[in-house]
Design goal:
Elements lengths: L1 H9 L2 H17 L3 H15 L6 H5 L4 E2 L9 E2 H7 L18 H24 L15 H21 L24 H8 L1 H16 L7 E2 L11 H9 L14 H5 L6 H7 L25 E2 L12 H10 L26 H7 L1 E5 L2 E3 L10 H6 L2 E2 L23 E6 L5 H17 L3 E4 L9 E5 L4 E3 L9 E5 L6 H11 L15 E3 L44 E3 L16 H10 L17 E2 L5 E2 L4 E2 L5 E2 L8 E4 L5 E5 L12 E7 L5 E11 L9 E5 L9 E6 L2 E4 L8 E7 L11 E9 L11 E4 L8 E4 L3 E2 L5 E2 L5 E3 L9 E3 L8 E4 L6 E2 L2 E2 L12 E5 L10 E6 L8 E9 L9 E7 L5 E8 L7 E7 L6 E7 L8 E10 L15 E3 L9 E28 L7 E3 L9 E3 L8 E4 L6 E2 L2 E2 L12 E5 L10 E6 L8 E9 L9 E7 L5 E8 L7 E7 L6 E7 L8 E10 L12 E28 L36
Parallel strand pairs: 5-24, 7-11, 8-9, 8-10, 10-12, 19-21
Antiparallel strand pairs: 1-2, 3-4, 5-6, 11-12, 13-14, 15-16, 17-18, 20-27, 21-26, 22-24, 22-25, 22-27, 23-24, 23-26, 28-29, 29-45, 30-31, 32-44, 33-38, 34-37, 35-36, 37-44, 38-43, 39-42, 39-44, 40-41, 40-43, 46-60, 47-59, 48-53, 49-52, 50-51, 52-59, 53-58, 54-57, 54-59, 55-56, 55-58
Helix pairs in contact: 1-2, 2-3, 2-9, 16-17
């Protein structure tokens, strides 16, 4: 509405059309019938204006101005009412005088003549415009009254209500601003989904009323030109729900509204009530492009058609990353607000499996709803009673009581509703379709034993296997009536125990029994099961990782964390569940000459191969089709490597891709995939596009990875087919999001020596066809398994995923330190920020955390301590801590202590009470002692606001002021060698050496190396990171400074909308340069920084990333890059104004070779508060952007000084004799590595102060 008024005042035709379009869903949801009927037709008319009218309207002539101005236009209809028809206005207008059609027509056609006549008569009568009384609302008394009313309203809002204009205290929940009461969930849901429901009503109305004739002229991208791109913003941030492939794209919500612009003449005659639909008129979807034909506009005749600039449209598609042909699902925008995903949806399952790589730091998305899934809730109601009598027989083995011939009679209790019965029958059909079991309706004349599905007040349960009770019941409470849970209980009834109860489960996971509810611990007991398939985390019989937690922490800890997202998500029988049932019940016993299934496939009840995942064919030897120009089978011969890259690499891949590769290595060996380069699109918290690595069980989904890295290793497991891996790449689901560079992966076969991850502090390699391994140790560690620390070892505990921590949890405390990413549970509470706990990690993404409410009591302690044999050397313990409590008295105590060989404990650090909202750092000197142990203890305080956290813990040799200098890293390769003395007695011809020693003198040159640096090759940078120098300095002649910022900009997320203004984080590293607009800046304020370096005269390339995001494009200001030379003249190299989108964008500028070069970066605040801009990753490289100047090796001057050294030269004399010799032969492989590192070029700003140190090892 504000934009609609603004369009009137400013005379902006584009803004008018976009604002009218954005109102449509609200008109429908509010049941404004006339607006809903006729606005679509109005929009159609306005998009098809004739060539003589359209330019006039576009130039603003639809609005009337009494005098020149920028914000004083009014609608022409209002101007008409104040002029032409002013003297005809009455209570009911002209229809109050007559309703006769011919009279109305005459009145309309002659009104302007009558108006002139009326004006002339008024003039002759002595009246003038100045003498006319003003509008009653503009009289002084009315104005004073209005001012008083405004003051009263403001006073009442501020004192009696929740102030809706105070953006700093907006609660997240929907409330009544008058009473402060929270709205019921159903009302909140209804209101927050109003826009989405309105869109559905628009589409329904369009499908029924306006889609009769074939549309011909494409206007798919026409409104992309419109001012503010308002509809694009609404689409991105309101996030349209329930779209399918044929639905509207995310680029511009008006593409969806354009469904309403069918042939207007047929629409005029056949308009229906909003929400009604003529089902005989279905829209046709183009399957090739997934475009909706209602996104096209027609008129009646050539004079009503609007010709579009096709080239312009293609440029727009390219700008927004649109692929040619099939566009994909275009649902990447839904990952921007994970809290709005249905926890049981496929998108939520994808989200749960994601992890983002930030240059070696891997983290999982914040906002996963693992605990909220229907299965997770139902698992919490699961229990298994003992049978009424007799010894319980269970498990899929020879002792279990199976159902004879696989026939399971069943009956469904009449207490279930019709819908619940349908769900139960669906689960039964699932069993009957996929296995040889026959769940058949119970017939008392035929069957004796049977299963009866009954309702239960609190739980869902089943006995294990067939028992003697008639009937044998499966109990289901209402929360358990879903297919996944029913199948789970049915699997129990036919004889199967839980997956986490398998006797081999400890090879894959650890049950943290201390976190399990006392009454449910038996659900995690190990059973003496037999099994035909590998341990399957995706089994429908697998609990989720939080099942039966009593404190919110995980009850199941996967040894390979990448698999945990599969646990507890079963909605049906998994691939391996079917295989287990098939084997247990002998479903294939009658098969004759069945095929030999490959790649983990198995013979099913039809005597054919059931194939995992993306494999097909009679023996599972074929791969399902991929998108064009990607996917396929890759065979890696022994000793070879294969380079797999994304399509178009290193250029950006296309969106809309689904690629699948089947990698097969040497039998008996593992496949190793080493990611050497990855840059895959994401929003910092979730993947838009991803790699999926299926490295474990081919029948299960693999984890997804995106982000940026130059090194990550994936090895296949030995649980199934170790020489087979499946790699998938998907840019199809999130095809509405911009593509990135892609990936490069090196594929090879390796041996089996690395299966148990033997290299503790290092990386592992196993030669092909070998069970041996080679460990490459991290700096400061040595030994065959890189597990022997030295005095130079650095120990850390970052809490990050897949990172080793030097601390272990104590078993003699009250509770454990947990890990958490994102804000603490009560960081924000009741509209207050910073109540207790941190807002996120200090370093990386995960921190160690003690949560107080609701399970902790005052004085409860959580203790962790080191369990490493540290070498005796003084050290510095550094860590960050956070102890925030809104009420200081609530906060407990954080204590760090140490013990030595004597066992005495020394307290090194102690803090009690509120320490503020920020993370604080502490460094502690640790003396050199024997048997060092460091202990961190958190003690709960007296109130619930007592959450504390630690992060970034490191133990570095040396003192805190003078860390121990660590020698240059040396790659130490230690081979596990077998030494076999072999004694052989044979007659041989032996060569015997007689040695003559002759003293000689040898001259050894001593070499001095001098480095000469040519500064024209210097590379200059400005990364904004801490302790990094920057070639730019702040100007003192501007309004404000560029500041440094890490993490999201203050208003990156506002009022539930992501990406309002400013970036979500740095583009490179952790820190970026940033101009903050609200609340201190005014339009036109400038922030300037410039170089202050005496550059050599050489052409250069200036490269940088910039971010200019504004929810309202008109708010955004201008970013400008310029340069000056010796003449002092300034040349503008780059300028951008207005919203540039939510992503970081890169620019490269050619800088000519000039004297006295100075580069200037200027940010100018825009007209509104959504004007935050940022730059990052600035570099100035010699040469052109296409051909950087090759940097030569440092120039060396070598001076040789002869030194005379007495040495001994040995001259062998050989004599051949026939002897019989017993020779012990020992085979060993020594490895020597010499590393020489020499810095090239110069990359510093205080020239003349650079100190070069060379260490050359021979």
């Amino acid at each position: 509405m504000i934009h609609n008024v603004g369009a009137e005042r400013e005379g902006s035709w584009d803004m008018h059309l976009t604002s009218i379009s954005s109102m449509l869903p609200y008109m429908f949801i509010a049941n404004r019938v006339n607006y809903s009927r006729w606005l679509p037709v109005y929009i159609l008319d306005m998009l098809n204006l004739t060539s003589d009218i359209q330019p006039a309207f576009s130039s603003g002539q639809f609005a009337i101005r009494q005098k020149p101005g920028k914000f004083n236009g009014i609608w022409s209809v209002m101007a008409t009412e104040k002029t032409v028809i002013k003297d005809s206005k009455g209570r009911d207008g002209i229809v109050g005088i007559t309703r006769q059609k011919s009279a109305l027509i005459r009145w309309s056609l002659t009104r302007h003549v009558l108006s002139e006549f009326s004006a002339e008569m008024r003039t002759r009568s002595g009246f003038s415009a100045q003498e006319e009384p003003s509008h009653e609302e503009t009289r002084p008394t009315a104005l004073r009254r209005d001012e008083e009313h405004v003051k009263l309203v403001i006073e009442h809002v501020q004192q009696q209500m929740t102030n809706p204009f105070d953006i700093t205290s907006h609660p997240k929940a929907l409330i009544n601003i008058s009473t402060g009461m929270h709205a019921p969930k159903e009302i909140e849901s209804s209101l927050t989904k109003a826009f989405d429901d309105g869109i559905k009503m628009v589409k329904s109305f369009v499908n029924g009323a306006l889609a009769e004739e074939k549309e011909v002229e494409e206007t798919l991208y026409e409104l992309d030109n419109l001012y503010l791109r308002q509809l694009h913003e609404i689409s991105e941030h309101r996030q349209l729900q329930d779209r399918n492939e044929g639905d509207i794209s995310d680029d511009n919500v008006f593409q969806g509204y354009r469904q309403i612009t069918g042939n207007k003449y047929s629409a005029h005659n056949k308009l229906q009530q909003p929400g009604k639909r003529d089902d005989n008129k279905q829209l046709q979807i183009d399957e090739e492009t997934k475009e909706n034909p209602l996104s096209k506009v027609v008129g009646s005749g050539k004079n009503r058609r609007k010709t579009l600039n096709q080239k312009s449209n293609m440029e727009k598609r390219k700008k927004y990353g649109k692929p040619k042909g099939k566009k994909g699902l275009e649902e990447g925008y839904k990952f921007d607000k994970p809290s709005e995903l249905d926890p049981d949806s496929n998108l939520a399952f994808l989200f749960d499996g994601m992890s983002i790589d930030d240059h070696g730091k891997i983290y999982q998305p914040i906002g996963r709803q693992i605990k909220d899934k229907t299965r997770a809730i139902a698992d919490g109601l699961d229990y298994h009673p003992d049978p009424p009598s007799g010894k319980l027989k269970r498990n899929f083995d020879q002792t279990v009581a199976f159902w004879p011939n696989g026939i399971v009679p069943y009956e469904i209790d009449s207490a279930f509703t019709a819908n619940q019965r349908a769900v139960i029958i669906s689960a039964i059909e699932e069993f009957n379709d996929k296995t040889c079991l026959d769940w058949t309706a119970y017939d008392n004349s035929t069957h004796t034993n049977y299963v009866k599905f009954v309702t239960h007040a609190e739980n869902c349960y089943s006995y294990i296997g067939k028992i003697g009770t008639i009937p044998q019941t499966i109990g289901l409470t209402s929360g358990c009536v879903n297919t996944g849970t029913i199948v789970h209980e049915m699997l129990h009834a036919i004889g199967s125990w839980h997956e986490q109860s398998r006797k081999d489960r400890n090879n894959y996971m650890t049950i943290d029994i201390e976190n399990v509810q006392d009454t449910r611990k038996a659900n995690f007991d190990i059973k003496q099961t037999s099994f035909d398939s590998p341990f399957d985390p995706a089994s429908d019989l697998m609990y989720g990782v939080y099942s039966f937690t009593k404190n919110g922490d995980k009850t199941e800890i996967f040894h390979d964390w990448r698999k945990e997202f599969l646990a507890g998500t079963g909605k049906t029988l998994s691939f391996y569940d079917i295989a287990d049932v098939t084997a247990a019940y002998g479903c294939t016993d009658s098969c004759v000459s069945p095929p030999t299934c490959q790649h983990g496939g198995f013979i099913d009840k039809t005597c054919s191969c059931s194939c995992p995942g993306v494999l097909t064919g009679s023996t599972c030897q074929q791969l399902v089709p991929s998108s064009a120009n990607c996917g396929g089978t890759i065979n890696i011969a022994g000793g070879e490597t294969y380079l797999l890259t994304s399509p178009n690499y290193p250029s950006s891949y296309s969106t809309g891709l689904q690629c699948t590769w089947l990698i097969q290595g040497e039998p008996g060996n593992h496949v190793r995939a080493t990611v050497t380069d990855m840059d895959i699109s994401n929003n910092g918290n979730a993947c838009y596009h991803w790699l999926e690595i299926v490295y474990d069980l081919l029948g299960n989904k693999g984890p997804e990875r995106c982000g940026s890295t130059d090194h990550e290793v994936w090895d296949t497991s030995s649980d199934e087919e170790m020489n087979t891996m499946i790699i998938k790449f998907d840019s199809f689901v999130g095809s509405d999001k911009v593509a990135a560079r892609g990936f490069s992966i090196t594929l090879e076969s390796i041996g089996t020596g690395c299966e148990d991850n033997p290299c503790v502090y290092g990386s592992c390699y196993s030669p092909i066809n070998s069970a041996s391994y080679i460990c490459t140790c991290n700096q400061g560690f040595s030994g065959t398994n890189c597990n022997e620390p030295t005095v130079y070892s650095i120990f850390e505990c970052t809490a990050e995923i897949d990172q080793r921590c030097m601390f272990v949890q104590s078993t003699n405390d009250t509770f454990n330190w947990g890990t958490r990413s994102g804000p603490a549970k009560y960081y924000t509470y009741s509209g207050i920020t910073g109540v207790t706990g941190p807002g996120g990690a200090k370093e990386g993404f995960v921190y160690l955390y003690t949560r107080t409410y609701p399970d902790r009591r005052p004085g409860d302690v959580a203790v962790m301590s080191t369990d490493i044999d540290f070498p005796k050397v003084e050290r510095c313990l550094s860590f960050w801590y956070h102890m925030r409590s809104y009420y200081a008295a609530h906060m407990g105590t954080l204590e760090v202590s140490m013990t030595d060989g004597s066992g005495s404990e020394t307290i090194l650090f102690s803090r009690t009470g509120n320490q503020g909202i920020e993370w604080l750092q502490e460094k502690l000197e640790i003396p050199a002692v024997d048997d060092l142990k460091i202990i961190i203890k958190g003690t709960s305080g007296t109130g619930w606001m007592s959450d504390m956290a630690v992060d970034g813990i490191s133990l570095v040799p040396g003192t805190c002021e003078s860390p121990l200098a660590t020698p240059d890293p040396t790659k130490t390769t230690t081979t596990t060698t077998t030494t076999t003395p072999t004694t052989t007695t044979t007659p041989t011809t032996t060569t015997t050496q007689t040695t003559t020693t002759t003293p000689t003198t040898t001259t050894t040159p001593t070499t001095t190396t001098t480095l000469t640096i040519n500064q024209e090759y210097s590379i200059f940078e400005c990364t904004a990171e801490t302790d990094q120098t920057c070639m730019f300095v702040q100007s003192t002649d501007d309004t404000f400074n560029w500041e440094k910022k890490s993490g999201p900009a203050p208003y990156y997320e506002y009022s539930g909308i992501t990406g309002v203004t400013g970036p979500g984080g740095a583009k490179e590293g952790d820190v970026y340069f940033y101009t903050k607009t609200y609340p201190d800046r005014n339009p036109g304020d400038i922030a300037v920084m410039f170089t202050d370096i005496d550059f050599q005269k050489v052409e250069r390339c200036l490269s940088f990333w910039y971010h200019m995001r504004s929810y309202y494009a008109a708010h955004m200001g201008t970013l400008e890059i310029s340069m000056t030379d010796g003449s002092g003249s300034e040349t503008i190299l780059f300028s951008r104004t207005g919203n540039q989108g939510i992503e970081w964008l890169q620019e490269k500028l050619e800088i000519p070779a000039v004297d006295d070069l100075k580069i200037i970066i200027k940010g100018t605040s825009g007209t509104g508060w959504m004007s935050d801009m940022a730059v990052d990753g600035i570099s100035l490289v010699p040469g052109t952007c296409e051909s950087p100047l090759a940097t030569p090796d440092p120039t060396k001057t070598i001076t040789t000084t002869p030194t005379t050294t007495p040495t001994t030269t040995t001259t062998p004399t050989t004599t051949t004799t026939q002897t019989t010799t017993t020779t012990p032969t020992t085979t060993t492989t020594p490895t020597t590595t010499t590393t020489l590192t020499i810095n090239q070029g110069i990359n510093e700003w205080n020239r003349g102060k650079c100190e070069w140190i060379f260490q050359l090892y021979y």
